[in-house]
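Appendix B. Chain record.
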Amino acid sequence: MLTYQDFLRAEDRAGSIGRAVRHHRASEVYRTAVEADLYDRQRNVTINNYVRLIQERARNPMADITAANNRLASNFFNRLNTQRCAYLLGNGVSFANRGGDTKARLGSKFDIDLFDWAYRALIHGVAFGFWNADRLYVFPVTEFAPLWDEETGALRAGIRFWRLSPDKPMTAVLYTEDGYAVYRSGEDGALALAEAEQPYLRRVNRSRAGGEEVVGADGYGALPIVPMWGSRRRQSTLIGMKEKIDSFDLIQSGFANDLTDCAQIYWLIENCGGMTEADLREFLDNLRLHHVAKVDGQAFDGTARSSLSPYVQDVPYEGRQAYLDGIRASIYEDFGGLDVHAISAGSTNDHIDAAYQPLDEEADQFEIQVIEAVQRVLALMGIEDTPLFKRNRVSNLRETIEAVMLEANVLDRETVLELLPNVTVDMRAGILERLAARKG
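Structure tokens predicted for this chain:
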């Protein structure tokens, strides 16, 4: 990896940017993020690359064109990461300082941007949020090369890079604590300065006569890009999960393939003593391909008539289904996800709470990472506040409301509203105001 100090020591700024991008794209973090994006789009790498092989006459492996090749990719990765992210952020974010305007200053799209930031942090291991005056922009690992400080480990600079296709020029934006500069590649592929460094904030005067005039420039006093980690382990959720997903997909696809090409049917050919092993393989391959066999003429050995008899075995279903069920349960358990099949209709809140326990434990760890990242964004804005989250949780709504109302006579109205599961944090202030106005 190239560090911030390595970047400062380089004499050729444009060359060092290109080198940093190449080092980043060769890193394990980047390669894992690329693979995680494929699994997130249900394009599981292992199952998509799987090809059944057979031995040809020269005993060299070759693709079996006669065999079925169903590739059934599961959606565990997207499903479980979405569940964890939506469980924590499905209701957006609120703030402890209810009298302040923190949410308003973050903008109307902050909840959407925060969800995208958090989701990418989960699947990539880390994601970067760029606070640009009044809006949060998310830089994924696949588009951003961080430059970490060797001494403190802090993020001191970074390079966002992209290109539409391999034959198009690359654009790279260098972000430092002082400002940003734009570089683009030429015909030779080397990066060159396209736009000189500019400050992040500008003070502008506007008038009818003179239009707009830049009268000053400001910065944040720090790099306005904040890393959010997906967990305290600082690694993608794909690590450790990939092998089990691949195992599930391969077994599921193999079962479908066996049903398609009847792999459990075998053939007995009588009076074929003159055929070699290569002849037999070629004969059976031709049979699977064309589904026709000519055996009622001259025998293979020239002395007797041949006969071809198929024998069928049932495809083993119970064993494979039990294995798939076991792998599925293991994926949910290791990830800490909520398996909805564990909650039956009419379950009490005690049963629901028990089913949610693994998801709660993982969400607690993730919430720490989200709170820390959001507070660093607030620090760039000069705000001190604490984000609050209302988890998007299924419950026995009637049972919960009845329990709260039984205690309502000894609780104040604000506490009752906080306990009611169908009242969000943002709704409470308005309800309290209307109740106060009605009372007055």
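Further analysis of this model is presented in Appendix C.
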